[in-house]
Design a protein that fits this description.
349 residues; alpha/beta; Rossmann fold; Dihydrodipicolinate Reductase, domain 2; eight-stranded parallel β-sheet; eight-stranded mixed β-sheet; binds NADP nicotinamide-adenine-dinucleotide phosphate
Length: 349
Amino acid sequence: MVKIPVKVAVNGYGTIGKRIATSILRNDDFKLVGVAKYTPDYRALIAARQGIKIYVPREKVEAFKAIGIEPEGYIDYLLEEAELIYDASPAGQGVKNKKLYDKLKKPVVFQGGEDPSIVEVSYSTLCNYSSVQGKRYVRVVSCNTTGLLRIICSLGVENVKRVFATIIRRASDPGEDLKGPINSIKLDLEQIPSHHALDAKTVVRDLNIETVAVAVPSTLMHVHVLEVFLKDKCIDVATLEKSSQGRVVAIHSKLADTTGKLIEIARDLGRFRNDLYENIVFTNTFTCRNNVLTLIQAVHQEAIVIPENIDVAYGIMNLETDVYRVISKVNSLFSIGIIKQIFSGEGSI
Ligand SMILES: NC(=O)c1ccc[n+]([C@@H]2O[C@H](COP(=O)([O-])OP(=O)(O)OC[C@H]3O[C@@H](n4cnc5c(N)ncnc54)[C@H](OP(=O)(O)O)[C@@H]3O)[C@@H](O)[C@H]2O)c1
């Protein structure tokens, strides 16, 4: 049995890594040993001033000192000290880092940009929490896939005959100035289905799903248009919200009909980093007729995978077998439930 708090290292402190690290800091079941930083920049400086221990490559120590950061040590020390490692490196770097992890013999949580073949399990809480218990290498699927799988597994895989999803994805995260498109709509696929369908199937193997994707000039959230052919009878949006354990929330588009307004809701709620951890389904787009369900949802790419990244730690470290207890704990960590409370009075619209 692993002793609590579990010591955690975060390798890569970008969009996802910094969110994982600060979530670990807020959770008494885990202890952040520190984060690995490769470039001496504003992110490193802020983290250091916030008391986060920064570990760096040997050859970069002087560069970090030059901007006023005293590194805690080298990255290999950090990885050795931890009992659980999160790899939040740029997509495709994780497979290279795995050579290091192989020597360390400790569990690692990779992110969605990595090839699924490098892990034992690709993961999404509502679909396969129990399959990560005691595993060494797990991958939390990407933001779009997490958004799709939360819906599909809340509906019940056994009740889903076929899914078709159109993904309208943000061009870049807010800090990524050099990515595009900046003034066009770009196909985000080489063939149909786009890679998102294949990614969903790494979690739910026999899922009948097709996806298409385009990228638009925005940094604020993805939007999905879903059509789900059900085997059994229709459900209503309240049932979907309930079976998602709060991870899916419905808001009428008369109250918020743009991703900009949704992020403004996160700001007004005082959410850390303006993060929206929930799938936001536009209530009035939810229809279910003749066993065909349609909905439009928005997914905050920077935040959506963070609850799943914390859930998975309870499974991989064998801390809790009951997925509902894990979700409830993690939901309260992120105040998931507050949006539902506020918008539950919208019935008169
Ligand atoms: N951004 C999203 O919307 C999103 C959503 C879901 C999943 N993901 C997935 O999450 C992963 C991380 O994406 P991200 O958006 O957080 O990337 P990111 O913002 O570019 O951050 C990547 C971080 O990795 C660090 N790094 C550089 N070399 C490294 C190495 N050798 N080992 C470990 N870390 C290294 C970088 O450090 P320095 O800054 O110090 O150079 C940077 O902080 C990817 O697999 C991505 O596909 C991203």
